[in-house]
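Continuing the batch. This is chain 6 of the set; chains 1 through 5 are on the previous pages. Same settings as before, nothing changed between runs. Recording input and output for traceability.
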Amino acid sequence: MEKAIEQDESLAMMDVASHPLVALPRSQYEILPMYAPTEVPLTDLNIPLDGSIITVGLINLLPTSRGTLTIASPDPTADPLIVPNYCATEVDRVILRTAMRHNVAALESPAGQEVVAEEVAPAGFPKLTSTSTDEELDARVNRCAASFYQKAGTVSMSEVVDTECRVKGVDALRVVNASVVPTPISAHYMVCIYALAEQMAAMIAGKEA
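Output for chain 6:
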């Protein structure tokens, strides 16, 4: 991780030790087994929906890559231009490689082999092992990665809205959803957004939250 941070941010190694990604105890990724082939629509693997396949989701909880959301047209009904820019940083690639290796090592263990017979790999790709190369892991991410659709930060607090979620420079307009969260929170967003919504509802109603 330290080398990845140094590469992405051009920091001296003596400064990397104080970086929040390594200086604080943070959850970098989540491993989420699901008893369903959830990625069938995205992978084109022709996996049977008969209960014989599981999916293990590997979620980067603290991505450092940043995408963009821009207006495509003066027409308010036109779709915006969205560039997710997934895995653009070495930090993100290191996090996913680490998660993949830990996951595969668990499935290779005696306990894992009692449950899982083998991996179903996309055509032209080797089955992953705990000794797969960085290049093999990166290629699999590029082929099969998908979003869990927990987008945030497109109208981030301090940049676009103030601490009461009021859009700066616009009268009588607030944004109260995940788009105001300015940085990844290393967790699922639902509870955070419920808390934000209750706080803002109380503020708008003129009550103490």
